[in-house]
Specification:
The chain is α/β, with parallel strands linked by helices. The protein has nine helices and eight strands. Strands 7-6-5-4-3-2-1-8 form an eight-stranded parallel beta sheet. The structure holds pyridoxal-5'-phosphate.
Length: 226
């Protein structure tokens, strides 16, 4: 399938999900996750109308950035080692995986302008997943006030791999509830308006539960150089 065909299908699903919960599709940002695919396939996504690309490794991001540059906005969505921050900080528009103080400190040190960051939250509690425990998120966000180059724009989570829709909904709702609490504090360093949640298998449910940024890989660009 071409990216264009996949995107048409995804957009239809997004419109339907928005319809059921009274949201506008314009409030949803689709990030094409290109970590599995070639530069050519990423370029195909841009030609199909995609404006946001997501990568989870420094190497993959830089390799594609070299070719594609500012034709897309770049999102760093994977766990990020502090020593790699300096290599990607000028290229990315958003970091979705801020999950510890040492990383915030490094972002603060290396960035020349405030960097929009999502706090990654481990809502499901799975040991294999990165992220801050839900009941530690508020303290973490408060602490970030001292890092002036870190702007908390929202919360991010990865849901477990499951077909159980109610379980997924429960996880997305918890993230949204936490987002609401932080947003409503109206802290200048943490507007926290956004929710980065929803991937190929669960983005419709995520949108129904408030996602503003969906990160879609396999369903949109494929899994191996398609
Ligand atoms: C790979 C990845 C995605 C996309 O996964 P798909 O299931 O292929 O859509 C989204 N978010 C993160 C953090 C990822 O690592």
């Amino acid at each position: 399938m071409s990216v264009k065909e996949n995107l048409a299908e995804i957009e239809e699903t997004i419109e339907k999900a928005c319809g059921t919960c009274g949201r506008s599709k314009d409030d949803i940002t689709v990030i094409a996750v290109t970590k599995y695919v070639s530069i050519a396939r990423a370029e195909e996504a841009i030609e199909a109308g995609i404006e946001h690309l997501g990568e989870n490794r420094k190497e993959g991001l830089l390799e594609k950035y070299e070719q594609i540059g500012d034709k897309a906005e770049w999102h760093f969505i994977g766990s990020l080692q502090s020593r790699k921050v300096k290599d990607i900080i000028e290229q990315v528009s958003m970091i979705h995986s801020l999950d510890r103080k040492s990383l915030a400190k490094e972002i603060n040190k290396r960035a020349t302008e405030p960097v929009p960051c999502f706090i990654q939250v481990n809502v499901s509690g799975e040991e294999t997943k990165h992220g801050i425990a839900p009941d530690e998120v508020e303290d973490f966000v408060d602490m970030l006030e001292s890092y002036e180059k870190v702007q908390v724009v929202g919360l991010m989570t990865m849901a477990p791999h499951t077909e159980n829709e109610e379980q997924l909904r429960g996880i997305f709702r918890q993230l949204r509830a936490k987002r609401d609490i932080i947003r409503d504090k109206k802290m200048p360093h943490a507007p926290c308006e956004f929710l980065s949640m929803g991937m190929s298998n669960d983005f419709a449910v995520a949108i129904e539960e408030g996602a503003t940024h969906v990160r879609i890989g396999s369903k949109l660009v494929g899994e191996d150089n398609g």
